[in-house]
Write a structure and sequence with these properties.
2 domains; two-stranded antiparallel sheet; 20 helices; SCAI; Protein SCAI; transcription corepressor activity
């Protein structure tokens, strides 16, 4: 600190010594509140504007938090309530969470957890909870935010306690505050119940995030020959959006975007495997403690996560504005992934087949509201100046593919668009795998492929022996790695895929897409029916593989593990008696 700054700080301290502590505190609170209101209104996707303001807001709240800690007793004597301390801590938690949503930096999410955990364990909102409806609403909002952070952090051991407290609090508030309406909070309780039921069907046997323990290390990924890939692109940004009638969601986070968000992030070292031993207590700390927990998740060798913008039921103008802003900031070596999971236009009832239309429109609004809430393939045309990967999960995907291929062929702006598109129809045996119960089957194949395979066969997490499941997981992981090696060395690989195969996230999505396509191709109830198959643009040629590593052979071996080969139709050369199986070696 320079000498003029030291003098200024000394003068300020002398001035403050003549002002009551409580007056200084409330001045800081007022200043922090104003800055918080401004940053809260900045959209998550406006990163450069937000990053500049975040440091200013955070500096004020750091000063405020430190001041109340150093003067806690004097402030309490002056009338400071515990819920007012909790409100400051909650704001800091919100700041950290907002910064995570804007940057995808996992450390901000863990810091948000630390502040929310302190609020919960120290019962900051307990005093006066049932005397003042405003304090009750603060506690309800806090619990909802804490639940979201725990979901994203995969702190599954904490969730039942939080959900139970939320439910009990809503019921008690409804009884005590008879003049207030708590119907929206009853909906929140139902939403989190549905969400957890859908998300824990297999108790998260392995993390959805990219794990260096279970997935290929980026440094070991094979290089595509220069003759095919003239450049190597990295996934830098993603736009994720989902809208289905009666879909599984919590707040503005749907089950599909939740899975995709995690799928495009690195799993922090050790956090998934160590989180189960930490439980909330009411002594102000967790079993792992703050310092050790941060050490567990810190891994300086990991690259930065791709930044993500989560859009909930966006209008077309909002969607286009987000794409434009992100494309403007996209680095020269970057590619933008756009994930859309929604009904076709007119499919407000959520039934398959109701939304087919020749235009390929994807509907993000309620029934009868086609104009401002429909995204057409032509809306992507201005953004083909930059590399794009579109992941379209929609029963109108065939029309979308035809329309966008035609539009881009006529007026492409410089880059070829890569696309992964869902089937037009769901296999009949998995009618219970609707958005109202489990989310999208196609999205599950891309984010948790073995879970999707088991659900397709009618198995739930409680039906399967864990040793068998782990055996299948190892087989699938090694097989996908073999497929990736074969793709990278293929002379017929399209350059559009060749330039992104070196990115670990896109490579994993592409290999899981191949797995999904192969499973549904061989699945007996829909055999030889193209409407039930996902497609990609450009198309992928099948690489040369040893018999035991071929696409069909791997599906046959997986089905054998679960005793489900009868559900598939294999060609004679991959029947069990003709294929040397890898199952016993796993």
């Amino acid at each position: 600190m320079s000498q003029p700054q030291q003098q200024q700080q000394h003068q300020q301290q002398q001035l403050n010594s003549n002002i009551p502590v409580s007056e200084i505190f409330w001045t800081l609170v007022d200043k922090a509140d104003k800055k918080f209101s401004k940053i809260r209104d900045i959209p998550y996707y406006q990163r450069s504007r937000h990053d500049t303001y975040f440091s200013k807001v955070f500096k004020v709240y750091t000063q405020l938090w430190k001041f109340q800690q150093e003067n806690r007793q004097k402030l309490i004597e002056a009338g400071l309530k515990r819920w007012e301390i909790g409100e400051i801590a909650s704001r800091i938690g919100q700041l950290y969470f907002g910064q995570y949503m804007r940057t995808s930096d996992f450390n901000y999410l863990s810091e948000s957890y630390i502040f929310y955990e302190a609020i919960f364990t120290r019962d900051y909102f307990k005093d006066g909870l049932f005397q003042d409806v405003n304090i009750a609403n603060k506690q309800l909002r806090f619990l909802a935010r804490f639940l979201t952070v725990c979901l994203l952090l995969n702190r599954r051991e904490v969730l039942p306690q939080l959900v139970n407290q939320l439910k009990v609090l809503v019921d008690e508030c409804k009884r005590v505050f008879v003049d207030s309406d708590f119907r929206e909070w009853k909906v929140v309780v139902l939403e989190i119940g549905r969400f957890l039921k859908a998300d824990t069907s297999f108790m998260n046997v392995r993390p959805v995030r990219y794990s260096l323990v279970l997935d290929s290390h980026p440094d070991t990924l094979p290089h595509v020959p220069v003759a095919i890939a003239k450049r190597n692109l990295k996934l830098r940004d993603a736009v994720l959006s989902s809208f289905h009638h009666n879909e599984v969601k919590f707040s503005e986070l749907t089950i599909d975007t939740f899975r995709m968000l995690q799928c495009l992030e690195w799993e922090p070292s050790g956090s998934f495997y160590q989180s189960g031993g930490s439980k909330l207590s009411h002594n102000g700390a967790t079993g792992s403690g703050r310092i050790s927990y941060l050490q567990d998740i810190a891994d300086p060798t990991l690259p930065a996560n791709p930044r993500k913008a989560i859009l909930y039921r966006p209008s077309l103008t909002h969607f286009v504005a987000v794409l434009a802003t992100i494309c403007e900031e996209l680095p020269p070596d970057g590619i933008l992934l756009v994930y859309l999971s929604a009904s076709g236009a007119g499919a407000g009832a959520g039934s398959f087949g109701a939304g087919h239309n020749e235009s390929g429109c994807i509907n993000f609004g309620s029934r009868g509201d086609r104009g401002s809430n429909c995204i057409y393939p032509s809306d992507f045309l201005p953004f083909t100046r930059r590399p794009l990967l579109l992941v379209i999960d929609n029963e109108n995907s065939k029309s979308f593919k035809a329309s966008i291929t035609s539009v881009i062929k006529e007026a492409e702006k410089g880059e070829s668009v890569a696309m992964l598109l869902s089937p037009n129809r769901l296999p009949p045996i998995v009618s219970d795998c609707s958005h109202s119960s489990n989310g999208s089957l196609f999205t599950m194949f891309l984010t948790a492929p073995l879970q999707a395979f088991c659900l397709l066969l009618g198995f739930s997490g409680t039906d399967i022996d864990l040793d068998l499941y782990n055996k299948a997981e190892i087989l699938l992981s090694s097989s996908l790695n073999n497929w990736g090696l074969a793709l990278a060395s293929s002379d017929t690989l399209d350059p559009v895929w060749g330039q992104v195969l070196g990115d670990p996230f896109i490579r994993r999505l592409l290999l899981r897409f191949i797995f999904c396509q192969t499973v549904l191709t061989l699945y007996a109830p829909v055999y030889n029916k193209s409407d039930f198959l996902p497609t990609c643009v450009p198309s992928l040629t099948t690489p040369v593989l040893p018999p035991s590593h071929s696409y069909q052979s791997v599906i046959q071996q997986l089905a054998s593990i679960f005793g489900a080969t009868k559900h598939f139709i294999f060609s004679e050369n991959v029947s069990p008696e003709n294929i040397p199986s890898n199952v016993d070696q796993v």
